[in-house]
Structures are given as C-alpha cells and as structure tokens.
Design goal:
6-stranded parallel beta sheet, Rossmann fold, 7-stranded parallel beta sheet, 376 residues
C-alpha cells in the first residue's frame, strides 16, 4: 500500500488567504497528508489529515517549540540538523526565530513544500537540500510588479527561479512571466482558482432600485481605483444615478482626495475590509462588480461575482481575458480607460432583463466548466 503524499503548505499566516484555504481542503480530499506551517493567528478546524504546525507570538510557546524540535532533531536526525544549522548560520542573523520556522519543516520532512508568495523563495529554497520538492505559486504583484520596482527582487528571481521544481500559476498570462528568468514555460502548471458550488438560496438577492456598483480589494495603485473614480465623475456629469462602493481601501488619502476633488461624496464610498460573508452579500446585492485593475492574475472576486449572479465589468489586465468574453459572460474594457468604462456601464444599464439574464447564466456556466473546486 502506497503511503499518502505528504505536502507542506507555507503562506506566512494560519488561517491564510481564500486561495490557500481552498488549496488545503482540495488536497486533503485527494488523500494527501497536509502540514501547515506559518504564524498561527488562530487555530482553524480542519479534517483529520490536515496538521497545523504553526507558531504564535507567545514567547513561552515559541521557546517550547524550539526546545521540542531541537531535541527531536538531535536525537533522531542529528546529521540533518547539523546541515540545516550550517545553512542558518551562514544566511541569517536572527537564528532563534529562523529555527522556530525551519525545524518543524525538517522534522516532518514533507515530500513537497508549497510556497504561496514568490518573494520568500530565498528563505525556503533550502528544503531541496533534504530531498523535498519545492513548488512556488506565481500570483499577483509579487511576480508582475515587484520585480519591476525592486531590482533586488528581480535579481533574486533570476537566481532562484531556475532552481524551483515546479510552479503553479493562476492564469496563462502570469505563467508567461517565468520566461524572463530563464525558466521553461513547461515548468509551470496553470490551475485556475476553484470555487465551492452554491446550494439552496445562496443566489437570492435584495432588490433596490438604485444602480449599485461595487469593487473589492486592498488599497494599492495596481487596483486602478483612481480610474474607477474618474469613471464615476463622467457618470455623474451624464446624469446617471448610481452608488459606487470600494470595499477594503479605507484610509487611502489619495482616494478620499479624488472623491472630494470630483464632488462625489454622495456617490462614492470607501469602506474597510469586511468579513467573507458580508462581502458575499454585498456582491449579491450589487448590480455590477467592477474590476478596474491595471494588473491581476485572475481575480477571485470576479469569479465569485460570476458565480453569485452579479454582472461583471473588468479591465483586460493580466489573465482576465481567460475568464471573460466581452458581452458574452461579462464585459471587458482596456486598462486605464475611464471613458470606455463609463460608456460600458451605461450600456449595461440599458440591457433588457433577458439580455442580462443570458450573460449571468453564461457566467455561471463558465464557473461550472472552468472554476469549480471539483475541477481543480
């Protein structure tokens, strides 16, 4: 009888992003043993073959972990411990916290180590020294923006990317980024994000006469919110009645200034992060989800809106054209084009109910065919 594959997942925090949480539960269903490493924010409940091996901010707890794994490695894997200690001594100043992070991984010695954030590649490349396959996800600004704005990150990727055993990318557009670093495209597997299937009344919505537009995402220039606000200015000038809410960007001086400058206080609202359930309800209550980004892999929020039956307008950034067919299952406009965004929104409002329903159904079909958890 073959032993189940032992897979380590490191993302920095436990619980992690929705992407990693779906990865964990999906792998567990395939009879793999999953070990989660990282900072323990809270201890979530998982199925029996998912093992949480994180550390917390508690100093006594960290000391206990260090002592525990130091003893275990010394007694049963002494040579491996000496080898890892030599690596730590050569590369790191804070040796204690590094050992707290590394020793548990060495002790449990997974078959595969998965890293979510490419920027941390240098910290974990050592796992290969112990026969562990090293897989890195290619996601978002870590791959598309950071290497352009930080030469040190580009040089890091140039050095370490060719050493990686395999890459996962959320889109074909993101997958192509590895070629900049001398990595063969064949080394990358594109796996689109998967969503759990909806059941029951999950698609029920609250009806409101006002046309509600929503965007969701952190406060970062790459999200293109200033182009969306410029679009709102054009909509207001044309007498279009709407409400636009940006969730997750509260505290941005730039956005608040642009709202004030364009006299959009009664139209545009910037709110803090909300819980997953609150976000899902807000998407369902919206008439349109807008993704005004300059760069993305494939935005999960767009997939969620499509699944929930909310129309989507996105820019043609990153891998979004791999999901949206213009005027078939959603709408696409060029990046940085507020005028086109505004005219498309007005066109969407003028669609008949039958036309809207047809687009919504095709969007749901796209999710069923390409983005359900069962297909990942």
């Amino acid at each position: 009888m073959n032993k189940p594959l032992k897979i380590a997942v490191y993302s920095g925090a436990i619980p992690s992003t929705s992407f990693v949480e779906r990865l964990i539960t999906g792998l567990a269903k395939k009879d793999c043993q999953i070990y989660l490493f990282g900072y323990l924010v809270s201890k979530p409940r998982y199925s029996k073959n998912i093992y949480v091996k994180g550390y917390s901010a508690n100093r006594l707890f960290k000391y206990f972990l260090l002592l525990k794994y130091s003893i275990l490695l010394f007694l049963f894997k002494k040579k491996d411990k000496q080898k890892l200690d030599a690596i730590i001594k050569l590369k790191y100043k804070n040796k204690a916290i590094t050992k707290i992070k590394y020793y548990p991984v060495l002790w449990h010695q997974p078959d595969v180590f998965h890293l979510q954030w490419a920027k941390s590649i240098e910290d974990w490349i050592w796992v290969q020294e112990f026969g562990i396959k090293f897989i890195v996800s290619l996601r978002g600004t870590h791959v598309t923006i950071s290497p352009i704005t930080h030469c040190a990150i580009f040089e890091k990727y140039l050095k370490y990317f060719p050493m990686v055993d395999g890459f996962h990318a959320v889109s074909k557009a993101i997958a192509g980024e590895v070629e900049k670093y001398g990595v063969a495209r064949e080394k990358v597997t594109v796996v689109y994000s998967g969503l759990p299937q909806l059941t029951g009344n999950d698609t029920d919505v609250n009806v409101d006469e006002k046309f509600k537009i929503i965007s969701i995402g952190r406060n970062h220039w790459v999200k293109g919110y200033h182009y969306a606000i410029a679009c709102c200015k054009l909509l207001k000038e044309r007498g279009f009645e709407f409400e636009y809410q940006i969730i997750g960007a509260k505290g941005s001086e730039e956005l608040e200034f642009l709202i004030d400058l364009n006299n959009l206080h009664d139209k545009v609202y910037v709110t803090p992060n909300k819980s997953f359930d609150e976000v899902q309800q807000l998407i369902k209550n919206a008439d349109l989800l807008v993704l005004p980004s300059v760069e993305e892999g494939i935005a999960n929020v767009v997939l969620e809106a499509m699944q929930l039956g909310t129309l989507v307008l996105t820019t043609n950034c990153g891998g979004m054209e791999e999901v949206i067919e213009n005027e078939i299952n959603g709408f696409i406009v060029p990046i940085r084009n507020s005028e086109k965004m505004a005219s498309t929104i007005i066109r969407i409002v003028k669609l008949s109910d039958n036309e809207k329903n047809d687009i919504v159904e095709k969007a749901k079909e796209t999710i069923r065919n390409q983005h359900t958890s069962e297909k990942r």
